[in-house]
Amino acid sequence: MTESIQNWVENITIYMIFVTLLYKLNVNKAFQPYLKLITGLLMIVLLVEPVLRLKNVDFSEALQQEMSRFQVDSVRISQDIYQEKSKEMILSSYQTQLQQTLRAELSSYGLYLQNMEVEFNQKESYGEIERLFLEVSYQQNLQESQEDLEAQESLTKIRELKIKQWLKENFQVPEEKVEIKLKK
Q1: DSSP result, the chain
Q2: For 104-150, what is each residue's pLDDT tens digit?
Q3: 65-76 tens-digit pLDDT
């Protein structure tokens, strides 16, 4: 009888050390609620173990089931986090590619891309551009005289329409979702 009580106390001690290490090593806060749930269930099983042994209930099978559930939940959460990070990386890469392509295209119009803000659709059609804001300026080598500046301003609307049409053709961005601001 004293040996079973000693084993029970040892199991609880080992459990406490194990749980403390788990909490210290858990850097991802998304796992925290699940970790608390599983470790709490294990603690309940450990505390009730002597009563279960008196009734000849198989404790090891219950423990294995709980550990299996914990592993499945951990894998599922890891996959969700990985998918989120992948989506963020894809959108970031797409935004970078769009910015580089726009810089090259705008330079053919004598414009320089100062700033770009992109809002993506995160729900229905993932990755579709919801809003595109471009802040452009004339290239410095073109700002030589007041006459050149006035001539360029008269072409601004034509350039804006051409840029919007180019974005529609190459990136399927509707013209009404594009805003272009000329920075002087």
Answers
A1: -HHHHHHHHHHHHHHHHHHHHHHHH---GGGHHHHHHHHHHHHHHHHHHHHHHHTT--HHHHHHHHHHHHHHHHHHHHHHHHHHHHHHHHHHHHHHHHHHHHHHHHHTTTEEEEEEEEEE--STTTT-EEEEEEEEEE-GGG-SSHHHHHHHHHTHHHHHHHHHHHHHHHH---GGGEEEEE--
A2: 888 887 788 888 888 888 776 667 888 888 888 876 554 445 555 55
A3: 878 888 888 888
pTM for this one? 0.51
Q: What is the pLDDT of residues 113-124, one digit of tens each?
A: 888 888 888 776
Say if domain 91-182 classifies as CATH 3.30.300: yes
Residue ranges of domains in the chain: 2-85, 91-182
92's tokens = 């970031």
